[in-house]
Amino acid sequence: MAFHSFPWFGMDIGGTLVKLVYFEPKDITAEEEQEEVENLKSIRRYLTSNTAYGKTGIRDVHLELQDLTLCGRKGNLHFIRFPTHDLPAFLQMGRDKHFSSLHTTLCATGGGAYKFESDFRMMADLELHKLDELDCLIRGVLYLDSVMSSGPSECYYFENPADPDHCVQKPCTLENPYPLLLVNIGSGVSILAVYSENNYKRVTGTSLGGGTFLGLCCLLTGCSTFEEALEMASQGESTRVDKLVRDIYGGDYERFGLPGWAVASSFGNMMSKDKRESVSKEDLARATLVTITNNIGSITRMCALNENIETVLFVGNFLRVNTLSMKLLAYAMDYWSKGQLKALFLRHEGYFGAVGALLELLHPS
Amino acid sequence: MAECGRVDSNTSHTMDKSITLPPDEIFRNLENAKRFAIDIGGSLTKLAYYSTVQHKVAKVRSFDHTAKAAAGDKLYEISMQEEVTARLHFIKFENAYIETCLDFIKDHLVNTETKVIKATGGGAHKFKELIERKLGLKVDKEDEMTCLIKGCNFVLKNIPHEAFVYAKHADSEFRFQTTNPDIFPYLLVNIGSGVSIVKVESEDKFERIGGSSIGGGTFWGLGALLTKTKRFDELLQLASKGQHASVDMLVKDIYGGSYGYLGLTGDLIASSFGKSATADKDFSKEDMAKSLLHMISNDIGQLACLYAKLHNLSRVYFGGFFIRGHPVTMHTITYSINFFTKGEVQALFLRHEGYLGTIGAFLKGAEEDNPNQYSWGENYAGSSGLMSVSPDMNPMQRARSGTFPFDMLEMDRLERQLVNLPLLQDPSSYIPDTVDLTEDALAREYWLYCFEEALDGVVKRAVASQPDMPEAALRAEKFRQKYRHKLQTLRQQPFAYGSLTVRSLLDTREHCLNEFNFPDPYSKIKQRENDIALKYYQKAVKSLDELSWEEKQFALVQGVLAGNVFDWGAKAVSDVLESDPEFGFEEAKRQLEERPWLVDSYDQWLERLKGPPHKCALFFVDNSGVDIILGVMPFVRELLSRGTEVVLASNSGPALNDVTNGELQILTERIAAMDPVIEAGLREDRLLLVQSGSSSPCLDLSRLDKVLAMVVRERQTDLVIIEGMGRAIHTNYYAMLSCESLKMAVIKNSWLADRLGGKLFSVVFKYEVPAGKPNKDCGAFSPS
């Protein structure tokens, strides 16, 4: 195995967020320490001693994987994100810190690896090694699930998804996961059927994803961040916005086995002027979240049926700090499939592409 | 979800109470109405009733010839009789007019045997009290989805060209589907406030296999919030002007171009409203509405495809208020279906989609009358046609313009049950019409002009056919206005009644003539022609019998062709005939084109005749007079002599100068009295006269009398002969049959002759043997 010189980065430049993983070696010998150029030290210090970078960069400290052995080296894996529109600032920083002098390969995936390739070259004198995002995604998922770490289990599910009082998160592993439906919810959604590490296909996708949730919330409520939108959603009531089956039939629509609580028309109540005037921003945010989440659930379920797959793994940054959506998805999978489908989730929600890119740097496939 | 969740538009239902309805046009035949159903949606009310219509029909009755009346007496008498037929009326109007309409119905309802009115639709409960008070009928609510499916089955079965594919940028936006006798199974995606996806397997078996909460209500509700625009159609208008790319995050916004590895193009939407999440700026109402429209249409299309795939269904119909008459949504749904299935599944829409609920509710209430046992036909004279009311006009605008916007569909119960000709090679791909005028703009222009030109003559003949009726002129004038209006409508909206064809133009004219009690304008002309021709029958047969076998075969064909020149339906001929009544049979023969004809497989036909006789020939006949008597009958006589049984199929009702079954019965009896071959044929049951079930100058082999189909099967028919321009050229020119077929016609229209590469009076003699048939003597012939 050829040793790859530090620093070790993997990058995933999505439509909304840039995800960066950084491996911080903790087993640096004194000899190495001496040889290490100042630029490299400075980068390491900058990344590991801060949890926020600039106005919008954030290190997800709770996701950090410590005492990891990667490519024979021991160290910590850090997870950093910032909005894609702040990429110029990031490039400026790379330039200021003379990143290009390190002669490293920067493995990058996501659409931005293509879109911003020339910006990397022009602004920071960096050559990107571009990688396919779905290849990276799958590689990252399988890797993080397999690594032994002292932290909590990577994979988990919700027990009793139908019962809000007893719905609890339970750890599990992805042992014998195939075939697996992998649903990546970023700005948009991609749905992949995975049959083995190297055998997968993109089944379909939908444009109704995290970007739609946030975009609509911004327009409807005037909020500007994902966290704000989620906070509002957690306080709202979607049933004031949506028209339910019981709003039409007074109860269940028994002829077709539709329960009264099911949503008949998302935002259906908003056809009426009076009701438009009586809902709160929180209600609208909640309805948006429920609409997008249920729709993803619905399409996922149909794909699972068409592909004859029973295990569904949801990933992507839409699920970050979004227990509401995860529980909804878990419930939707369970209820509409009468217990046939199982929804699984991963702790490192949106970072798998970046992890996959890093792995590609160390173990070119 | 079903469309039951529709919400009322903000117009009050009490507005326009003072409006007066044009009673001649709307709620026709109300005095005989006996059964009602109503479907009240969010903004439109659809009313259905069953009524009986008194029609004048021309009947022929043979005189008693045993008395040996003086020579020159007429062969038969024509009498006008009243006949009662059943008709279904469907009327669609805005909820705003419901009270006015109910008052009108109450005032005009004579027969009040009816005690209940079947009701469906989300608004039914809201207007229940009003309906019960106004009409004194008990409102009986029916399940919405059941009504929808029943209605859908009914229109798919009974209305040719009901379903269409929408193609925004094609020459004709509406591409109508041929009626497939096997309508099941299919998927109905009903986009009301939510979406219901229903799998229909048979008349009574259907299942809601799925749905989505993202539907028309989402577009309307979310759209109203985003754009502060209240009305659904205004939102659609906004959307049609917007640019979604300024709001949506496209693949190229993320990748800088396409995502080549997966074959996703740069213009594909990666994240709906994705730009409004990252860009801090104002978005235009139009752009947001467009983005929303795309988001919802794509989502519905995707789900529909997933369900279609899971249940292995390829026919997917879309309906509901989101679709109804809106080219914008039909386009986006079509686009989405094409994208997700790569063209494997086509999005289908229905011409009478808005009526499904009320048709179904009506059928539910009429089950004791077994409406499903009958065949029904759309009455072009009384139906408004697709897009008759512009969806872009809102009720206020319409109220100001002083018009009462309504849309009508009338379905006539046909006397006979109609089925496919069992000899069609592939019923599912059979298209009767040779030229689709919806797609062929040049041909359309010509024929519309041609029919308008011929209108004066038709009016004149209609008046002349009823010399004893002084008000005939007034009625004929009304007919002229009605038909001219239809032609004008078709000029603007060629798709109004399905594919526009010469057949539909002819049929529409017949329907309009019937509407004004001109059931058979040619009855007297046909009578005179039959009388004259009959006098020459024996002479004609005798001269044929003097010929050698080969000469005779050719003379028989020539006779059929020359006889066919006698056709009052074609303008070029009627001009000659009217100016020179002595224009004779022999002269007509001389007019015929010399061989080789424009399409000429006579040699193959002759070779075939040298072989064994056919088991049974089915002959679709054309005109009265010389054609049937001097052309067809000698030909039939020869077939009988060869040992071939003959089934003569003629129209059930009158159309132009075509011989009707009633007339043919009398004529054949008279000929039998002179001709032992015909007489023996009738007596031995080897010559049968059956009705086609049609009253059209053209021929739709997928809608033929059930009895005819039965006879064809029983007799093991192995030869089909189709005669005349209407049946063998305007229709069926390309029809593929599973047995030998012979199409004979003279082209009596110079434009059409030109189109086909011939000239006036060019001959088409098209003898075909289906591929794979054992008879090696006669290879299939294709026109040059």
Automatic annotation (TrEMBL), chain A:
Pfam assignment, any one: Fumble
A single GO BP: coenzyme A biosynthetic process
Gene Ontology terms, MF aspect: ATP binding; pantothenate kinase activity
GO cellular component, one term: cytosol
Matches recorded under InterPro entries: ATPase_NBD (IPR043129), Type_II_PanK (IPR004567)
Protein name: Pantothenate kinase 2
Protein source organism: Astatotilapia calliptera (Eastern happy)
TrEMBL record, chain B:
Entry cofactors: Ni(2+); Mn(2+)
GO MF annotation list: ATP binding; hydrolase activity; metal ion binding; pantothenate kinase activity
Pfam family, one: ARMT1-like_dom
Residue ranges occupied by any Damage-control phosphatase ARMT1-like metal-binding domain in the UniProt entry: 451-759
A GO CC term assigned to this protein in UniProt: nucleus
Keywords: Acetylation, ATP-binding, Coenzyme A biosynthesis, Cytoplasm, Hydrolase, Manganese, Metal-binding, Nickel, Nitration, Nucleotide-binding, Phosphoprotein
Catalytic reactions of this protein: (R)-4'-phospho-S-sulfopantetheine + H2O = (R)-S-sulfopantetheine + phosphate; (R)-4'-phosphopantetheine + H2O = (R)-pantetheine + phosphate; (R)-4'-phosphopantetheine sulfonate + H2O = (R)-pantetheine sulfonate + phosphate
Single GO BP term: coenzyme A biosynthetic process
Subunit structure: Homodimer. Interacts with PKM.
Family recorded in the similarity comment: Belongs to the type II pantothenate kinase family. In the N-terminal section; belongs to the type II pantothenate kinase family.
NCBIfam families per the UniProt record, alphabetical: panK_eukar (TIGR00555)
UniProt function note: Phosphatase which shows a preference for 4'-phosphopantetheine and its oxidatively damaged forms (sulfonate or S-sulfonate), providing strong indirect evidence that the phosphatase activity pre-empts damage in the coenzyme A (CoA) pathway. Hydrolyzing excess 4'-phosphopantetheine could constitute a directed overflow mechanism to prevent its oxidation to the S-sulfonate, sulfonate, or other forms. Hydrolyzing 4'-phosphopantetheine sulfonate or S-sulfonate would forestall their conversion to inactive forms of CoA and acyl carrier protein.
Name of the molecule in the record: 4'-phosphopantetheine phosphatase
Originating organism: Astatotilapia calliptera
